[in-house]
Amino acid sequence: MVRKTSSGFFSSIQEDMPFRISRGYDQILQHTAYPPCTLPLNPQKEKFSPERYTQPYIDFMTENPTIFHAVDYFVEKLNQDGYVYLSEREQWKIKPGGKYYTKRNNSAFIAFAVGKDYKPGNGVGIVAGHIDALTAKVKPIPKLQTKAGYVQLGVAPYAGGMNMTWWDRDLGIGGKVLVKTDNGTIEERLVKLDWPIARIPTLAPHFGAASQGPFNPETNMVPIIGLDNSDLSGKELPSLKLPAGTFVARQPERLVRAIAGKMGITDYTSIVNWELELFDVQPAQLGGLDKEFIFAGRIDDKLCCFAAIEGLLASPDDASPGIIKMVGCFDDEEVGSFLRQGARSNFMPSTISRICEALNDYDCGPNLINQTLANSFLVSSDVIHAVNPNFLYAYLENHSPRLNVGVAVSADPNGHMTTDSASTALLSRIAEKCGSTLQVFQIRNDSRSGGTIGPMTSSRLGCRAIDCGIPQLSMHSIRATTGSLDPGLGVQLYKGFFDYYEEVDAEFTD
Q1: Using an 8 Å Cβ cutoff, are 383 and 472 in contact?
Q2: Per UniProt, what is one Pfam family of this protein (predicted)?
Q3: Does 12 reside within a domain?
Q4: CATH number (domain holding residue 125)
Q5: Which of 73, 389, 425, 429 is 20 to 30 A from 182 (CA-CA)?
Q6: Strand ranges across the sheet with 124-130
Q7: pLDDT tens digits, residue range 238-259?
Q8: CATH number, domain containing residue 166
Q9: Cα-flanking dihedrals φ and ψ of residue 402, to 5°?
């Protein structure tokens, strides 16, 4: 049952509608005080098995722990499906029926498929999210003085990274490395040291008040990465004798050796810079008595990006042939999206503008671009707080999404979400057509709302938009939880959006 919110966002939603869950679970018992909230659903019109996306998602999460690895994974999937790379530094050649992608900083990308019947001025169906996650980033000069025999690594928290859940975890390190080749060019290469290298040790409770905090992230949360007791033995450790003034001379020698060895680099000075982060090396895995859960790190928001890309790739070319289908995965959302690869940048507006120009023989003015945007729709997709059974009082009654049920629409009367009544009605019609269940989330009046890229992106584009996402527990923890069916349920809805947007949009008057 769903009740209308005070903002009126869901005034068209019927109450007392039964909710369904995909096969594999016989029954969900409804909590009397906090029943799930779902939008009305017609009988499923098409066969869809969310289970087939469970293991691919688990493998993706384990194998791609950094943002650069995740983007590289998605780009490779696009390449395999026939998508053509378009460099922002070159002129674009685009035609109806073509599939393309572009990227920035190798940490954000936009993929799009132009319908074979596309005409200039037609709309763009967009699913967008962020691919960055809370982490700890290696400082520019992370080489620290050995303390009490411990070799430590200078890192800085990214957004809310290095919170209390990062203590006593097995941490690997990875990211991108800039390497100077023999011909003098600079290449970006990926590296992943996915065994336990670093650890942030807690202070045992036996030490009393000092072990209880508060803790200083600059002095109390410095990872240990090795031992050096040469001050006791009088024997100096072997040195790489790195030339002064080079980038690697300012880095911990053992880290330089480990990364160079992993990458097959023999000339250490060819490493001109790097961008590295820490990550929990524990693999993503199924959990629960019947394997109903996925336990993993970095679920926020690689989960929705995974579902969006899989939905785009699964959408047949002859579905919504008169529009452009687009997925945008941005960086820097967790710190405000202000950088050039973030959602506040010109990345998406510029991409859409260049598409319009290329499809109209570069005879394209503001009128055509604005017409395109007016016919477009943005699904801002970021993970949603699933209801936590130990803290039911923290959730708004009838607005508490459950795992393994479906994507949740997120509303906020103060503009932190871009959802409104019209966008909810449109996505509800799409959910009916593709057999998805929509849940609803809104915070209590006495809680603080988070934010998404939805408001900033929709306001820059001027298109209609909605905020929705896949539910998860323990958001911003180093280890979080979602349902084992939830990646596939996300794919089902986003595929449905690409399949049916053109048809459903025609039902709505201006």
Answers
A1: yes
A2: Peptidase_M18
A3: no
A4: 3.40.630.10
A5: 73
A6: 84-85, 99-104, 108-114, 324-330, 124-130, 377-381, 464-469, 408-410, 439-441
A7: 788 899 999 999 999 999 999 9
A8: 2.30.250.10
A9: -110, 160
